[in-house]
Design goal:
Number of helices: 0
Distance between the termini: 7 Å
Number of strands: 15
Largest sheet: 6 strands, antiparallel
Strand content: over 45%
Radius of gyration: 16 Å
Length: about 160
């Protein structure tokens, strides 16, 4: 049994969150995965704070699933690309497979974000974080979350 998994980005700074504007992170979280597991493997995501949390104001811009352009505020993840050199396919999982401003939730529940039902070689994926503050969100310069990316294989 073999599973190889890596995550290339350790820190992402979203910068300023102007009210009512969807902000994309300046870089993606890039993952690679390979497994010889007969039933493939999955990549999972979760967040520690249930959204972007400000310790100085005890405020949270909650994580959400949906189109941030039409939601009042929110924070979430979107898989922007997947590929594999063999096996697979390595596929985006709903609701993380959206386009434009559509994201999936990143709260403290571990959720599947990318999946393959067959052995996969050279699997790669990019995950983009997006956020939107409302005009009533408390202004602070310490909003943050801790995002965890996990992988498992199904032997």
């Amino acid at each position: 049994p073999q599973l190889s998994f890596s995550v290339s980005t350790s820190t992402i700074a979203l910068g300023n969150l102007p009210p009512t504007t969807v902000i994309d992170a300046p870089q993606t979280i890039d993952i690679t995965m390979s497994t010889n597991a007969s039933s493939g493997g999955d990549v999972y995501i979760n967040g520690q704070n249930g959204g972007l949390y400000s310790a100085s104001t005890s405020s949270t811009i909650i994580s959400a699933t949906g189109d941030l352009s039409s939601l009042g505020n929110g924070f979430g993840a979107q898989v922007t690309s997947v590929s594999q050199s063999s096996g697979g396919p390595f596929s985006k999982v709903n609701p993380y497979d959206g386009t434009s401003s559509t994201v999936g939730i990143t709260n403290n529940t571990i959720r599947k974000i990318i999946s393959s039902s067959y052995p996969i070689g050279g699997g790669a994926g990019s995950i983009l974080l997006k956020a939107k503050a409302s005009s009533t969100d408390v202004v602070a310069n310490d909003y943050q979350d801790v995002i965890t990316i996990l992988a498992s294989a199904s032997f």
